[in-house]
Each structure stands twice: as structure tokens, then as C-alpha cells.
Design the sequence.
């Protein structure tokens, strides 16, 4: 008898063996065995069905600005929700945004409608889906402060809507992180009473403080909760700035940023992370936890 081999269902949406390097802001990482960039919720559901039929694990990515993809890549299906699924619709009191809309676009169109409430997101190079998952924030504000509802798809392909969000959003954490829920859209409330600095001012001030000129994933470690110093301060005091492993280097401008000088591998970056964590533990007895997500 000829053994039965599960045949790959034909589906144009899905590509095979796609390098993830250009889909992360660190520009490192190996290939996804399967990859797709859906243009609609229907296509996301088709991609989930494909993965279920093939028995594949699924990983969702947005702009890859908080991700470390291993050099070996990902042996499953990567679904990227980016500019293909990025419509926004603004109403009087709220804005509906698809998961792939950029945080910059959210701030920009809200601004043009007369509210500065999302200006704090300027310069955070993520998507709405990634931003909600990471509870992105800056200057004392977080995106979850403005969430009215989230539309997501579960691992079986069923669509759900949270109108009352679960209360478990906190610093760089949300109920969507490490879950099988795939955010496809969100409703955010607009606040016209806020008077945040202009987007251009925020960008200028961030460019002075943060190293934007080389590939990075922003802050590598979360600020510790059991310490009065930020992760950046602890790393600076531990002499992290300039530490180099292969082509990965700790920024001289900000000790919590690891930069890719050109040809860094994920292993170079992971080794740097391990060295930094050990140094801070040895010097201060504080265990730093990564903010970046390793897939
Ligand atoms: C230069 C620079 C500066 C930064 N500054 C800040 C800052 O000031 N504040 C801040 O909070 N962050 C900052 N970041 C980090 C990063 O931009 C944010 O965490 C951002 O919200 C990540 O969004 P993303 O779309 O890139 O998500 P990704 O990096 O693609 O994914 C992050 C996580 O979200 C999950 N995910 C993504 N999309 C979805 C979805 N649709 N449904 C379910 N899960 C999803 C992924 O599986 C992963 O676990 C910075 C990064 C850089 C490079």
C-alpha cells in the first residue's frame, strides 16, 4: 500500500520559504516555512484553515519592530498583518483601524481630525495590532487607555469582538501577548481635550534621545518594577554601551538599544542580550526581562 501523505492544499495567498529578515526592523532572522500577507479578514481565516489542515503552528507579526526571529527561521505559518490590511475610518468620537494600520497613521489622521490624543505614538514604528498586543506607550500614555473594542480571530478561525476589554493590560503586556488570538481591527476613542506636543516635536525629541539611524527593535528590556532605575540606566552603569558581539552593538546613545551594524545574526543579538542580563544581575541583583518577543 502507498502511504497517505497530507497534500498541501492549493492556496495562492500562501508563499513558501520566505525570509523574514526584511519584515523585522532588526533585519535579522531566517525564513518562514509558510508566509502570507492577507488583505481581508476572510483571507486571515483562509490562512488559519490552511495551517490547521497542515498541522502548522501560526505566528502573527505586524511591522516586526519588537521581534527577534531566530537565524533558523520559523517552522510554521507566519501571517503578517501590515499595509495590506490597514484601512482606517474616523467618526466623531472614535476611530476604527484595521490591525495592519501603522501607529504613525493613527496619530496622523487623528491629528488631522483635530485631536492630538495619539501623538504620543509618533516614532513607535509598529502597527495597531502589534501596538495593542504590546500595549505600546510613551510619555506616560499607553494605547490601551484609548481602546473601546478589539476584533479578533481565534485559532479555529472564529471571529469575536471584545466590547468590554479584559482588564489585564499593563506595562508592555496585554491579553493578546502569547495567546492564539489574532487582532484584525480595533476601535479607539478620540479625546479632543488633550493637548499633547506636536508630532514633529515628538519626532525631533525622540531622534535626539534614541538611535534611529541603525536597525534595532527599540528598548530590548522592560524597565524593572522592583527598582528605582530604568533598564537603560542599569545597563549604562553596568558599562553596556559599546558592547559588541559580531555585528550587534549596544548603542552609545541609549544602553537599552542593541543595533545591527550591518550583518548581525539573531545569535549575535541573543548573546548580547544574555551578556547584558548577566551583567546587570551581577552588579545590581536585578533580573531584566526582555520586552522584545523572540519567535
Ligand atoms: C526605534 C524603535 C523605537 C521604539 N519605541 C517604542 C516606544 O517608545 N514605546 C513602545 O511601546 N514600543 C516601542 N518600540 C517597540 C515596538 O515598535 C512596539 O512594541 C510596537 O507596538 C510593535 O508593533 P509591531 O506591529 O511591530 O509588532 P511586532 O513586532 O510585529 O509583534 C510584536 C508582538 O505582537 C504580536 N502581534 C503583532 N500583530 C498582531 C496581531 N494583529 N494580532 C495578534 N498579535 C500580534 C506578535 O506576535 C508579537 O508577539 C520601538 C521600536 C523601535 C524599533
Sequence:
Amino acid at each position: 500500500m502507498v502511504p497517505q501523505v497530507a497534500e498541501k492544499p492549493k492556496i495562492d495567498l500562501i508563499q513558501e520559504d520566505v525570509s523574514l529578515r526584511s519584515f523585522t526592523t532588526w533585519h535579522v532572522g531566517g525564513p518562514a516555512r509558510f508566509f502570507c500577507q492577507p488583505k481581508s479578514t476572510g483571507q486571515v481565516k483562509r490562512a488559519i484553515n490552511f495551517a490547521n489542515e497542515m498541522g502548522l503552528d501560526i505566528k502573527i507579526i505586524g511591522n516586526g519592530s519588537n521581534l527577534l526571529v531566530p537565524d533558523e527561521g520559523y517552522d510554521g505559518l507566519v501571517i503578517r498583518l501590515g499595509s495590506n490590511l490597514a484601512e482606517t475610518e474616523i467618526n466623531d468620537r472614535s476611530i476604527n483601524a484595521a490591525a495592519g494600520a501603522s501607529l504613525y497613521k493613527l496619530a496622523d489622521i487623528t491629528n488631522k481630525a483635530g485631536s492630538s490624543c495619539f501623538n504620543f505614538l509618533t516614532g513607535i514604528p509598529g502597527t495597531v495590532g502589534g501596538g495593542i498586543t504590546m500595549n505600546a506607550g510613551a510619555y506616560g500614555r499607553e494605547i490601551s487607555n484609548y481602546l473601546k473594542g478589539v476584533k479578533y480571530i481565534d485559532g479555529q478561525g472564529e471571529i469575536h469582538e471584545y466590547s468590554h476589554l479584559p482588564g489585564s493590560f499593563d506595562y508592555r503586556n496585554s491579553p493578546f501577548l502569547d495567546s492564539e488570538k489574532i487582532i484584525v481591527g480595533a476601535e479607539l476613542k478620540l479625546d479632543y481635550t488633550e493637548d499633547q506636543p506636536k508630532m514633529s516635536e515628538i519626532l525631533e525629541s525622540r531622534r535626539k534621545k534614541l538611535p534611529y539611524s541603525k536597525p534595532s527593535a527599540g528598548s530590548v528590556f522592560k524597565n524593572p518594577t522592583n527598582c528605582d532605575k530604568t533598564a537603560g540606566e542599569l545597563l549604562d552603569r553596568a558599562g553596556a554601551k559599546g558592547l559588541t558581539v559580531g555585528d550587534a552593538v549596544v548603542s552609545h546613545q541609549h544602553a537599552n538599544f542593541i543595533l545591527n551594524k550591518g550583518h548581525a545574526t539573531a545569535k549575535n543579538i541573543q548573546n548580547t542580550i544574555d551578556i547584558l542580563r548577566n551583567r546587570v544581575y551581577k552588579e545590581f541583583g536585578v533580573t531584566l526581562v526582555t520586552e522584545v518577543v523572540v519567535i
The domain at 211-294 is CATH 3.90.78.10 (Uridine Diphospho-n-acetylenolpyruvylglucosamine Reductase; domain 1). The pocket of flavin-adenine dinucleotide is lined by residues 25, 59-67, 81, 99, 124-127, 129-131, 133-134, 136-138, 176-177, 182-183, 210, 212, 216-218, 293 (CB under 6 Å). Residues 266-284 form the longest helix (19 residues). The two ends are 40 Å apart (CA to CA).
